[in-house]
Design goal:
single chain, 8 helices, about 140 residues, Globin-like
């Protein structure tokens, strides 16, 4: 029997733990469903286009590389600096927390092992905070 746990963040371990691209796409779909459903995320949902197809693809592709998998975002859309790409938006503590809530609830329903869920949310909090800081710098 293969060992389930692995060292997250090393090589493509996190990408594999997330279920590779199909698992990431399921996470992203749930995330955007949450964003559309939760009252706390109304403001951040309004920052996105009505049709979320491209947003879903971009986030899935970004997370693929971010988790150690194929660099799909750069292959399809070019390079990106997550904080800089969001700098034009008004993202404060409330918006950051709403984004993290949507992602937390999406992570909770995935078939990821429990320690990976904790790890993933800890890691996602870092770029979420960097976006908030970039949006609030003068």
């Amino acid at each position: 029997m293969q060992e389930k746990s692995c060292e997250y963040g090393v090589g493509d371990n996190s990408y594999k733990m997330a279920g590779e691209l199909p698992g990431i796409a399921a996470l992203v779909d749930e995330f955007y469903s949450n964003m559309s459903a939760f009252s706390e995320s109304k403001k951040i949902r309004s920052m996105h286009p009505k049709d979320l197809s491209v947003s879903r693809q971009k986030l899935s592709y970004f997370l693929s590389a971010w988790l150690g998998g194929p660099k799909l975002y750069s292959q399809h859309f070019g390079s990106i600096s997550i904080p800089f790409a969001h700098k034009h938006l008004s993202v404060g503590v409330e918006e950051r927390d709403a984004w993290l809530l949507c992602m937390q609830k999406a992570v909770e329903v995935q078939a990821f092992e429990a320690p990976f869920k904790v790890y993933l949310m800890e890691q996602l909090a870092v770029p979420a905070e960097r976006i908030r800081l970039a949006c609030n710098s003068a």
